[in-house]
Structure prediction request, 493 residues.
Amino acid sequence: GLSTAAALARRPSMTGAVLRSAVPLPPPFQAPLPIPAVLEPVGDGRYEITQREAVAEILPGLKTPLWTYEGTFPGPTIESRRGRPITVTHRNELPVPTVVHLHGGRTPASSDGYPTDLVLPHGHTASHAMHDPRAVVTTLTRDYTFPLDQRPALLWYHDHRMDFTAPAIWRGLAGLHVVRDDDEDDLGLPAGDRELPLMICDRAFAADGGLAYPALDPALRERPGVHAAYLGGVLGDVILVNGAPWPVHEVDAARYRLRVLNASNARHYELAAVTDDGRPVPLVQIGADQGLLAAPVPHHRLPIAPAERYDVVIDFSQVRPGERVRLINHLGADRTRDVMAFHVTRRAPDDSRVPDVLSTDLPTWRRSEATTVRDFSFRAGHTPHGRGWVIGGLPFDPTRTDVATTLGATEVWRLIADVHHPVHLHLVGFRVLSRGGRPPLPHDAGLKDTVSLRPGEAVEIITRFDGYRGRYLFHCHNAEHEDMGMMANLEIT
Ligand code: C2O
Ligand code: CU
Prediction:
């Protein structure tokens, strides 16, 4: 029972359609902020996750059917240590094939979740899936092995099936994965209850409580204009943090470390923290997608594109107990302007710190070291399924090698876009060299795996393809764009 009609607001297709929920929305800052449970290992470095349908009460009094990891949305958080490999066995009890990708993981290709490496649903036979000639690897359960030989960082795992990633993530197939190490633990950053993961995403709700999504609803799919709306990416009118609508969290008047992920399919945010009387509270960035920065960078507004992560420290000791600090979205309108609130309840001791030097191991690749410079345009274009999105003029084809490189090669990529495209590379982190012909912006700092391309603005990145040989991907992380062709193969030999 997914989604009866939700009215589609008329918006230009290139920027995405905002789905309007067909149910009354609750006032903001009532629901407590959920913290996803940490997944317990079933053995030394071994985890099991069952993918199954579940029903959750996301909006008060409404039952929302979801696709989940382990029955919850977000899925359980995996906590791991740098250099200690883990294996996660996924069992698929959903009605469809799935693929799991650890976003930001330095993962051998066989466990990276290539879009046709399917985990078949139980009760289905392999021959059933083989009707799709592109499905090259199919199993009923699948062991994903992650060496985690990488910088400590907030990663996330999510579905990655070819052509169907966006609706699968929308229905709930996303969870967090935190990699830690001793060096980071020793910095004295806010920790324990004062470290909060914040998975931010938007959704819309149909009259029956189900999640509204154009392609999930046969009635909607047939309506003219729906494909065009879907083309730009799907946006909802409800902002969820860790699965709760506009939640509130009680905090001490102390420093907190917020580990922010934009898990939205297509929505960009520009985050700011403000007190109820309008005073800004700075967000001090300490980390990017791939871990700690060299030094903290304070922001008043922090743009965050789909799949990007920011590690920020916010100091609530500047706020009087009893006051509230709202996390707001400057790009939102009406209800999507609010994200969540922190209610500062009491003074409390705080021995945390934000050191001036956070890390000294960031790669310092220089332009002169690059052996190859490549150009990629990310634009609207023609695909076998009609209008879609293409990289360098070509829609995704799992049989084509778009980039062939060698292990250890350092490359500069020049990326240019027609509209906003958050571009993600699997396996490697990269650094932003320039944006629009100028030095990178403050939020481009550090080691990233996803970079936000803005309309018409060229972005240069530099990376080194070390780690593993094999077939990887790069793609737009607007999940609808990704499903509509904007993905390419990267072969490391
Ligand atoms: Cu977050 Cu290719 O994915
Ligand atoms: Cu895109």
In short: The domain at 192-347 is CATH 2.60.40.420 (Immunoglobulin-like). Residues 404 and 491 are 5 Å apart (CA to CA). The chain has a mean pLDDT of 92. The longest strand covers residues 372-383.
